[in-house]
Design goal:
Blueprint lengths: L3 H14 L9 H4 L57 E4 L23 E2 L11 E19 L11 E7 L10 E4 L7 E17 L11 E2 L1 E5 L8 E3 L6 E4 L23 E2 L11 E19 L11 E7 L10 E4 L7 E18 L11 E2 L1 E7 L2 H4 L1 E7 L6 E5 L3 E5 L14 E7 L5 E6 L10 E4 L5 E4 L7 E5 L4 E5 L10 E4 L5 E4 L12 E4 L6 E4 L15 H4 L4 E4 L4 E6 L3 E6 L5 E7 L10 E6 L2 E5 L14 E6 L5 E5 L11 E4 L5 E4 L18 E4 L4 E4 L11 E5 L5 E5 L12 E6 L15 E4 L4 E2 L4 E7 L4 E6 L2 E3 L8 E8 L4 E5 L10 E8 L9 E5 L1
Parallel strand pairs: 5-18, 47-54
Antiparallel strand pairs: 1-3, 2-7, 3-6, 3-8, 4-5, 4-6, 9-17, 10-12, 11-16, 12-15, 12-17, 13-14, 13-15, 18-45, 19-20, 19-50, 20-21, 21-22, 23-24, 24-25, 25-26, 27-28, 28-29, 29-30, 31-32, 32-33, 33-34, 35-36, 36-37, 37-38, 39-40, 40-41, 41-42, 43-44, 44-45, 46-48, 48-52, 49-51, 49-53, 51-52, ...
Organism: Streptomyces toxytricini (Actinomyces toxytricini)
Keywords: Signal
Protein name: Discoidin domain-containing protein
């Protein structure tokens, strides 16, 4: 790095070139808010009085008048910060001549001192690495990197994190990605595992200012309570008993922890003379199973009885319980807690013993739900890859040809608010894992909370949001953004879909843009203008949300069919047929069976004329989510039939669902009670729905909660990207990362990849609807399917569509494949063509545009 006058110029230029964000002290990630209790406590165990609801217009806004304040638990770290006592740090190189830039400075607790790569004389070239030695083995789940606070030189751009138990063998990175060029603390997460040494390697400088790397502080986070490679055990036939339970003043029986309802609880005896701590509850599985974790969900109404210090023990006979397999102290909040066992136990009985109440409010213990987890089998439950860091929270994503994933947030990488006229974007290269960042200014559009439609020519149309009337288009072939004509009606949280005509339809969206009905309108790719549809009012598709249209017309589930028609099948319980011809028209299509409104659930087209709806809640937030799922089918006559299918194992809203090439549907993340910017009641167990049985089965547990502002997308290799969540500024629920899930259909029992068929030729870049292809293949092929390239945001992805194809053998290694002629079945646009074997194992897809 230059010195003297030249160095000063570098500093000045860096400050001029970057609009530096205020650096967030690491302490802002660590400070939680104490629970809000009055001076007088409620009667022990009795429900605390609920505060009177505040009218929406009187609520305190966060960054914009669209969301209430961040809940207290959102300001607490998702995992404990490890004690740095005795730690040391070393670096690949460090500056000691021109300044005190020693590696040890990252552990001294002062952001004023830094580690800096060597810059005096001849600068050491990138990459630069710094290694923390904890001098003991600990479970580690994240590295917290605090950039220097004085100016930007040396901020890390592209990075990799590696772990080691001996400082010699490092293996593949556990996390990679690209960091934003600002001064905020960055949490680089990965699946928790034991390590002694943690190495952060900087591959580039975030601002391209020179071959330098710097860091003010480095911290490590411990076990967040989500074990790797585990899966929920089925609770059928289980029973629960407790050392004591409240049966007089309330229904606080132990059995409530197994009923699947967070509103019912086990509570220790409090009427008369309260039973003193410790209290214990024992789950009897009535069969011996391998158990590796206990999941504890606190009560949701108020804090009395939340478990603090605890131990977990196991038994095969219910009499002899051995040494604890887990112990610790849980925080006083309402988030789901996991006790990860030190070793997998073969047991029938699992006992949770609580020795302190987390908030020291009294001698009470309570629990809403208890679940147990066992080791996951890859062939049955799939597996998760390493976590990839993004330079922003991926609030919206779109799958692109060339194995790319487009993502964007808002005007800022970690927060939203106002109408700033620009958007932070990123592209993940699925082949290399590299993430690149770009700010888009030329469209004058802050694309936070938009509607999205994948156009017939493969471009991505993005409408409304923070700049509520704007519309922008991304062209993946040119990697360019451009503006198109603004909508007639300003909108945010609206729904969009492409039509069979090649036009784009939009409806609803009262989140931004003022009052009034958000009736439908259509964008023409030929004229690049919007046409009003006065005959398609949004009022007919509203939910009964207590916040009114502001929430009631959000995130509609739209499915385009033949002749420019659209089936609106949710989240309102009332379904509607929409015609987009002329001024448009709308006709009722019946109720979605016995389903209530299901805001922040979603719908997925898993076959031609067949959709699955999953989860949601009767209100946008602060209402219990549902476990219900429904199938919705329609035929050429327009008759719609809805029926309840099997329930999910977990109630969830804010989750994301993805249809797989074999027709099964995977659902990821969500909350049992939706609250924006909170990770309370997180569901960490994905589930897989099988249309052949109508049942859901659990998949391997997630390492990171994915709730409000999370996404999921099918990838061209048959895997699924799941990421995001948060966008709430200086909070601990910002998840600027994602991970790839490998479904069970790709894995053998030992976790190795299954042999899969391959498409080797015969797939043109463009094909007409109704055409036939002669596709060259390798391996055994039983069927073909088209999967539409899709875009997701706010739990909704109206672009998803699975179209099974008619095919026949055409000689050795060759098949004739027919594309449907009906553009209501195969909408114009970009698709992934998969070949599948008889067991449903998919090939890697070939991209093709159907026109």
């Amino acid at each position: 790095m230059p010195s003297g006058r030249t160095r000063a110029l570098y500093r000045l230029r860096a400050l001029r070139r970057s609009s530096l964000l205020i650096a967030f002290a690491l302490g802002s990630l660590l400070v939680g808010l104490t629970p809000l209790f009055g001076a007088a406590s409620p009667a022990p165990g009795a429900p605390a009085p609920r505060p009177a609801p505040v009218p929406f217009e009187q609520q305190t806004a966060m960054q914009a008048p669209h969301h209430p304040v961040v809940p207290a638990n959102a300001l607490e770290p998702a995992a404990p910060v490890l004690d740095r006592t005795g730690w040391t740090a070393s670096a690949s190189d460090e500056e000691t001549a021109g300044e005190n830039g020693r590696a040890a400075n990252v552990l001294d607790g002062s952001t004023a001192t830094i580690w800096h790569s060597k810059w005096s004389g001849t600068p050491a070239p990138l990459p630069h690495g710094i290694t923390v030695d904890m001098h003991r083995t600990a479970v580690v789940s994240a590295l917290v990197y605090q950039p220097r606070s004085d100016w930007g030189n040396g901020r890390i751009g592209e990075y990799a994190v590696n772990l080691s138990t001996d400082g010699l063998s490092w293996g593949s990175p556990v996390a990679t990605g690209t960091l934003a060029d600002d001064g905020s603390a960055k949490t680089l997460g990965f699946a928790p595992q034991g390590a002694r040494f943690v190495r952060l390697t900087a591959l580039t400088e975030a601002g391209g200012r020179g071959p330098w790397t710097s860091a003010a502080e480095i911290n490590l986070l411990g076990d967040p309570g989500t074990p790797a490679a585990t899966v929920d055990l089925p609770r059928t036939g289980w029973t629960a008993s407790a050392s004591d339970e409240e049966a007089t003043g309330e229904n606080g029986r132990a059995a409530n922890v197994l009923d699947g309802e967070a509103s019912t609880i086990w509570h220790s005896r409090w009427s008369g003379t309260a039973a003193p701590l410790p209290h214990s509850i024992t789950v009897d599985m009535h069969r011996t199973a391998e158990v590796s974790a206990l999941v504890y969900q606190p009560r949701q109404d108020y804090g009395n009885g939340r478990a603090g210090a605890y131990t977990v023990t196991t038994s095969t006979d219910g009499s002899s319980f051995g040494a604890p397999v887990a112990s610790g102290t849980w925080r006083d909040d309402d988030t789901v807690k996991t006790a990860t066992f030190t070793r997998t136990a073969s047991a029938r009985f699992v006992r949770l013993t609580v020795t302190t109440e987390a908030g020291a409010r009294g001698p009470w213990t309570s629990a809403a739900e208890i679940r147990l987890s066992g080791p996951a089998s890859p062939a049955a439950h799939g597996s998760w890859g390493r976590i990839t860091g993004f330079p922003l929270v991926p609030v919206a994503t779109a799958a692109l040809p060339g194995d790319k994933l487009l993502a964007w947030s808002a005007y800022a990488v970690d927060r939203f608010g106002g109408s700033n006229g620009y958007t932070q974007t990123a592209i993940l290269d699925l082949r290399t894992g590299r993430v690149t960042q770009r700010r888009i200014d030329n469209t004058g559009h802050d694309m936070f909370c938009p509607g999205i439609a994948m156009l017939a020519d493969g471009r991505v149309l993005v409408t409304g949001g923070s700049n509520a009337e704007k519309a922008s288009i991304y062209d993946p072939a040119a990697d360019e953004w451009s503006a198109t004509t603004s909508m007639n009606i300003a909108r945010g949280y609206q729904a969009m879909t492409l039509l069979s005509t090649g036009e784009a339809f939009v409806l609803g969206g009262s989140w931004s843009g003022g009052g009034g009905d958000r009736a439908g309108e259509v964008w023409s790719p030929d004229t690049r203008t919007w046409r009003r549809l006065p005959g398609v009012p949004a009022t007919a598709a509203l939910t009964a949300d207590p916040a009114g249209p502001y929430r009631a017309d959000n995130h509609m589930w739209l499915h385009a069919t033949s002749g420019g028609r659209v089936l609106q099948l949710g989240p309102s319980r009332q379904m509607n047929w929409i015609s987009t011809a002329g001024g448009g028209s709308l006709a009722p299509a019946g109720a979605r069976a016995d389903s209530p409104d299901a805001m922040n659930g979603n719908a997925v087209a898993y076959d031609v004329g067949k959709l699955l709806t999953l989860g949601g809640a009767t209100a946008y937030e602060n209402a219990p989510a549902t476990r219900r799922a429904y199938t919705v089918g329609f035929d050429g006559s327009g008759r719609v039939e809805a029926a309840r299918t099997g329930d999910m194992g977990h109630a969830r809203a804010f989750g994301n669902s993805v249809v797989l090439p074999d027709g099964k549907v995977a659902v990821f993340g969500g909350q049992a009670r939706p609250v924006p910017f909170s990770d309370a009641t997180s569901v960490l167990t994905p589930e897989l729905w099988d249309p052949a049985t109508g049942k859901f089965t659990p998949l391997a547990s997630m390492a990171v909660p994915r709730n409000y502002h999370s996404v999921a997308n099918l990838l061209p290799d048959g895997r699924v990207f799941s990421g995001g969540g948060g966008l709430c500024g200086a909070c601990a629920t910002n998840h600027a990362d994602g991970a790839v899930f490998t479904p069970p259909y790709l894995l053998n029992a030992d976790g190795t990849p299954k042999a899969r068929p391959a498409i080797t030729g015969g797939v043109p870049a463009r094909v007409a609807a109704g055409a036939s292809l002669t596709v060259a293949t390798e391996g055994t092929v039983a069927s073909f399917v088209l999967m539409r390239a899709a875009a997701a945001t706010h739990s909704t992805d109206n672009d998803q569509r699975r179209v099974p194809l008619v095919s026949a053998p055409a000689g050795a290694g060759s098949h004739t494949v027919s594309v449907p002629a009906d553009k209501g079945v195969v909408l114009p646009g970009t698709y992934m063509l998969f070949a599948l074997d008889a067991q449903g194992v998919p090939s890697t897809a070939k991209f093709v545009t159907v026109h």
